[in-house]
Amino acid sequence: MSDEIIAVLARIEGKVQRVWYRNWTVENATKRGLAGWVRNRLDGSVEALFAGPTAQVDDMLEACREGPPKARVDAIKSEPTEIPAEEGFRELPTE
User: Fold this and answer.
1) DSSP string for residues in 2-43
2) Which CATH architecture fits 5-85?
3) N or C: which terminal CB in the chain sees fewer CB atoms within 10 Å?
4) pLDDT of residue 2
């Protein structure tokens, strides 16, 4: 059922840092009404937690495969995770 609320932790690999990927993710996740966060990882990937209705989370993951114009996404690895307590979508510091 697409109204079910789910949470997914995604690791996006490729040319995804220094190409406006985090800001793009915040904008697009917010447009979809998702909760969660996005941050750069020290290994050059971007990590994001998306929480919301299944259809919106799936749509966001699909959008992440393309990302902003200067990005090049090589792979997205995702796994189910806990739904965050905080509302809204935000950027976190690099970890």
Assistant:
1) TTSEEEEEEEEEEE-SSSSHHHHHHHHHHHTT-EEEEEE-TT
2) 2-Layer Sandwich (3.30)
3) N
4) 58
pLDDT at 37 over 90: yes
pLDDT one-digit tens code per residue, 62-89:
999 999 999 999 999 999 999 999 999 9
Per the annotation, the verdict on 23 as an active-site residue is: no
28 is catalytic: no
Q: Which of 11, 18, 22, 39 is catalytic?
A: 22
Here the tokens at position 47 are: 């990590």
Choose the catalytic residue: 11, 39, 40, 72: 40
Domain residue ranges in the chain:
5-85
Contact 91, 38 (CB under 8 A): yes
